[in-house]
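seq as requested:
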Amino acid sequence: MNKSIEEILEKSGKHWQTTVGDSMQPMLRDRKNIVEIVKPQRALKRYDLPLYRRPNGKYVLHRILKVKKDYYITCGDNRYHREKVPKEWIVGVASGYYKNGKFIPEKNFKYRLYVHIWCDFFYIRAGLLFIKNRIKRLITKN
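struct tokens:
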């Protein structure tokens, strides 16, 4: 029987997972990066990358844009729809990821710079993504 990520984190405190999907591009690429997930050791804050489990059982790794009293507002780096995530859904938080065999910790300067630029310009990025998606739909429709 396969153990859940929650069980693995409870036992060892860490879990490594290959990313699947494109919601966290350009930082994390589909099936190309491995993310290190740890049990949170502190209250999560803006820019953190939590792993959470939706009620349907699906695990999601999206970035925190805002912290509220009982929930977080999250969004994938390659998405413009934000999601309200109750704190009790949080399973773990990314402490870094592997890119081309090298571990990039969340405290890495380039990582932090990317995260700040990506989140601080969310509305510009979201607008551009929205326009890009509309153009793709028009092209594929014809």
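The mean pLDDT is 94.
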